[in-house]
């Protein structure tokens, strides 16, 4: 250990040019990745300038200063999309994480290894279905007819009258609950992996000691399992919070005209402005919306990084 | 270890570099493959010695999947076209679903093709942006216009923007016609509806009665549609009987002024009719979330009896699918009810010459105009290539037996088990007649297809082309979203039209609409 430290100190005192020469093969290895990142990640960023232009993709862009931003901030559609992005993402994050923790705890209680593996495999599977397929499956399950599984079940229980079935995906009252449930179905299983790994790392001696002290299953979960998971839960929340602005596919495939006010998020708003405007789109405007989205996402990453440092003692970036 | 690192590093870098180089080579080779064509010498039947227009040596076109694709024998098409014209042809054919993305990228790159196929929205938009060559004078003096082969001049007339023509459509745009299941109509003892009251009475009988004769009343419904309003003009085409004279977007009224039909009295009436029918269960409850394939499947499963869908080939497809499911497949394509007057025909995709074409007259004459030459070139664009797409040999194709000399389409190269129906131009929608010989495929068209198409063609009007303006680019996206939301809310969510129109005013809809109307009238 002390030798390593010594070596490290010796190397770090050498001039940069010498250090680069010493590690030239490693620099050579990283070169393709660096070139790739510059070409595909950094050069396209010059497109940000279009946020300050009126540009329809053909004629020379016309500089309009902050006009696109002024228009954006005056549009009810933009604010509705912004609000929905935050609400849908944050609620989805909390609900999905909560469900993943609960399922992880339940899975952890299963003693039969075969049954546990089978249960894990089954709950992971929906993650591998595309959102288009998921939307089609749930359109059938939630159909507002007696052919829809949910409405048929509710009718048999007497909660819904025949002929007055609930149009879950076409109702501005029911769309959001349906959206969260579909998300739980699809993503919770995958979300349990990290919690299961944490649970596997808990020393069994703690449970044994607790049993000797007379603790039941509930108390063991309350005083051993949950505290052990707490750090992981916070980490997962923080890491995912940085990604909440990237909501698109799940909303896009489940959206319809009646629920635009409840479902339109920034990415679907940009899509509509670009492809369904009935005229040549002003790419300047959609770039401006995209830029604001990126800035908010960037701010969230920094906040998360700060929160991570506070909670875990180290940042995420 | 250091030696190993060196070798590893060099290997990885070489692999990356070589893969990049080889990929580049492959692309280059691929490009060369499409770009380098042996120029066919020799005259074509269409060569007009008297023409003053210079014949181009090469024409580059950009087209969507409505022309035979590479997998469907496009090379044979290209070779035949080059043989007939004596011109080198380069075809850029992006994936059909991503066509307009690629068109935008291509135009932005500055490397424009000579001719390009555009939908009405992009046609008016690109005309406004100066991308398209003004072919007004060319058309006025063209051989095709003077030939008498054109059977529908209204199609070309509808393409003028501010008195200028920027492209030509070789065929009509087609549209949707209302099909009624004949057996259902007979089972409920009704005649073909001719008025809205009769139409509603039919929907009522289909919803409450037992039109499918399965012994159960009320397990069917009247009509279904993919959405309550279309995403592009003519918007109202899936539910024309309810919209009638209402139009939710911009149109030029009888006084020659542009107006927005959404805020007119007719729209309030239309939404009232839709809401009433939706509440009574005449309209499929899932219309908001239906895709067109959902509607077709439900129709084939005999769940509803009235379907407004594309005229022409679809009439035969629907009969085939119904019969395959064991149901009576006879459909009646009805004439528009009195209140509708005429079905709306969409604007056909338009062939345009780009403003950067070196010889625009040559491209227009030898590529666009020649599509309707009344002879071999028109046959090529309509049916494809003999031996690849069609034949007159005695043979069996997809289970059907043809005699020697009988024209028939061949088996689809990509989708085995199905026959081709047409190439780029639908023979029933073509605006040019065959004159050199009889339409070779006329006899292969089924009675269902012909009746449906003729009924539509005789009872439709082309939807107006709306010019593009800067103001429209600024506001139409938000405005369209708001309008669609209001229609859905009034029809399915129980919100009153008055309340929603108040919101329309408050959220800027009326202001955006006025700004767009003003910009259109100021042109």
Automatic annotation (TrEMBL), chain A:
Membrane topology: Multi-pass membrane protein
One protein family per Pfam: BPD_transp_1
Keyword annotations: Cell membrane, Membrane, Transmembrane, Transmembrane helix, Transport
Domain (ABC transmembrane type-1): residue spans on this chain: 82-304
GO biological processes: transmembrane transport
Transmembrane segments: 21-43, 90-110, 122-142, 178-202, 223-242, 283-304
Domain of life: Bacteria
UniProt-annotated location(s): Cell membrane
Protein family per UniProt: Belongs to the binding-protein-dependent transport system permease family.
Protein's UniProt name: Putative aldouronate transport system permease protein
Species whose genome carries this gene: Anaerocolumna aminovalerica
Lineage of source species: Bacteria, Bacillati, Bacillota, Clostridia, Lachnospirales
From TrEMBL, chain B:
Signal peptide location: 1-23
Keywords carried by this UniProt record: Signal
Compositional bias per record (Low complexity), positions renumbered to this chain: 32-44
Region (Disordered), start-end ranges: 28-51
Pfam families, per the entry: SBP_bac_1 (PF01547)
Keyword Metal-binding in record: no
Keyword flag Transmembrane: no
Protein name (record): Putative aldouronate transport system substrate-binding protein
Alphabetized SUPFAM superfamilies for the sequence: Periplasmic binding protein-like II
InterPro entries: Bact_solute-bd_prot1, SBP
Organism whose genome encodes this protein: Anaerocolumna aminovalerica
Origin organism lineage: Bacteria, Bacillati, Bacillota, Clostridia, Lachnospirales
Superkingdom, taxonomy of origin: Bacteria
């Amino acid at each position: 250990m002390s030798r390593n430290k010594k070596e490290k100190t010796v190397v770090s005192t050498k001039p940069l040019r010498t250090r680069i020469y010493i590690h030239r093969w490693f620099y050579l290895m990283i070169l393709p990745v660096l070139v790739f990142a510059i070409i595909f990640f950094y050069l396209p960023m010059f497109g940000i300038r279009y946020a300050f232009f009126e540009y329809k993709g053909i004629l020379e862009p016309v500089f309009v200063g902050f006009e696109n931003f002024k228009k954006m901030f005056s549009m009810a559609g933009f604010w509705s999309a912004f609000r929905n992005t935050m609400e849908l993402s944050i609620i989805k994050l909390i609900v999905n994480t909560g469900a993943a923790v609960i399922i992880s705890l339940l899975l952890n209680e299963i003693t039969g290894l075969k049954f546990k593996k089978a249960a894990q495999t089954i709950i992971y599977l929906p993650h591998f279905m595309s959102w288009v397929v998921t939307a089609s499956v749930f359109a059938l399950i939630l159909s507002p007819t007696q052919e829809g599984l949910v409405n048929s079940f509710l009718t048999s229980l007497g909660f819904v009258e025949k002929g007055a079935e609930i149009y879950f995906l076409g109702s501005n009252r029911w769309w959001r609950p349906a959206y969260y449930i579909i998300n739980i179905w699809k993503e919770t299983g995958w979300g349990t992996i990290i919690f299961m790994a944490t649970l596997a790392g808990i020393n069994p001696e703690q449970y044994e000691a607790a049993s000797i002290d007379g603790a039941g299953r509930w108390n063991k979960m309350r005083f051993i399992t949950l505290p052990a998971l707490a750090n992981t839960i916070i980490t997962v929340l923080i890491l995912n919070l940085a990604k909440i602005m990237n909501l698109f596919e799940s909303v896009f495939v489940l959206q319809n005209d009646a629920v635009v006010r409840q479902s339109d998020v920034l990415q679907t708003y940009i899509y509509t402005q670009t492809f369904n405007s009935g005229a040549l789109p002003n790419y300047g405007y959609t770039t401006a919306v995209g830029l604001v989205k990126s800035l908010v996402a960037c701010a969230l990453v920094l906040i998360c990084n700060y929160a991570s440092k506070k909670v875990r003692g180290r940042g995420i970036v | 270890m250091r030696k190993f690192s060196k070798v590893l590093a060099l290997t990885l870098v070489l692999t990356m570099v070589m893969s990049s180089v080889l990929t580049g080579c492959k692309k280059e080779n691929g490009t060369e493959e499409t770009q380098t064509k042996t120029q066919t010498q020799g005259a074509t039947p269409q060569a007009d010695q008297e023409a003053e227009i210079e014949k181009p040596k090469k024409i580059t076109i950009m087209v969507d999947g409505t022309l035979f694709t590479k997998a469907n024998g496009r090379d044979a098409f290209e070779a035949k076209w080059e043989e007939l014209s004596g011109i080198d042809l380069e075809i850029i054919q992006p994936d059909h679903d991503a066509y307009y993305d690629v068109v935008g990228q291509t135009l932005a790159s500055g490397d424009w093709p000579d001719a390009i196929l555009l939908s009405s929205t992009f046609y008016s938009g690109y005309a406004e942006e100066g991308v398209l060559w003004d072919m007004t004078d060319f058309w006025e003096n063209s051989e095709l216009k003077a030939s008498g082969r054109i059977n529908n001049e209204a199609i070309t007339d509808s393409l003028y923007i501010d008195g200028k023509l920027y492209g030509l459509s070789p065929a009509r745009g087609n549209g949707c016609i209302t099909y009624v299941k004949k057996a259902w109509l007979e089972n409920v003892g009704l005649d073909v509806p001719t008025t809205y009251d009769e139409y509603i009475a039919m929907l009522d009988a289909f919803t409450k009665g037992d039109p499918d004769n399965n012994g159960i009343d009320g397990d069917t419904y009247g009509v279904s549609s993919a959405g309550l309003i279309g995403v592009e003009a003519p918007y109202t085409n899936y539910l024309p009987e309810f919209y009638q004279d209402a139009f939710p977007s911009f149109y030029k009224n009888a006084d020659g002024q542009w107006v927005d039909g959404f805020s007119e009295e007719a729209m309030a009436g239309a939404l009232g009719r839709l809401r009433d029918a939706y509440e009574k269960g005449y309209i499929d409850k899932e219309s908001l979330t239906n895709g067109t394939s959902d509607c077709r499947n439900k129709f084939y499963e005999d769940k509803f009896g009235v379907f407004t869908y594309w005229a022409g080939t679809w009439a035969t497809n629907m009969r085939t699918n119904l019969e395959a499911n064991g149901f009576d497949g006879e459909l009646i394509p009805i004439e528009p009810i009195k209140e509708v007057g005429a079905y709306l025909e969409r604007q056909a995709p338009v062939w345009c010459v780009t403003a950067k074409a070196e010889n625009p007259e040559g491209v227009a004459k030898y590529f666009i105009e020649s599509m309707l030459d009344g002879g071999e070139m028109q046959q090529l664009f309509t049916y494809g290539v003999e031996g690849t797409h069609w034949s007159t040999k005695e043979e069996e194709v997809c289970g059907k037996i043809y005699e020697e000399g009988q024209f028939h389409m061949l088996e689809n190269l990509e989708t085995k088990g199905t026959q081709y129906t047409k190439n780029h131009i639908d023979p029933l929608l073509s605006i040019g007649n065959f004159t050199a010989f009889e339409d070779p495929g006329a006899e292969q068209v089924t009675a269902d297809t012909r009746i449906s198409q003729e009924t539509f063609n005789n009872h439709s009007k082309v939807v107006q082309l709306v010019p593009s303006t800067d103001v429209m680019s600024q506001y139409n996206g938000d405005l369209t979203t708001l309008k669609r939301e209001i229609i859905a809310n009034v029809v399915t969510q129980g919100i009153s039209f008055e309340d929603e129109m108040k919101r329309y005013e408050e959220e800027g809809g009326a202001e955006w609409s006025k700004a767009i109307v003003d910009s259109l009238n100021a042109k």
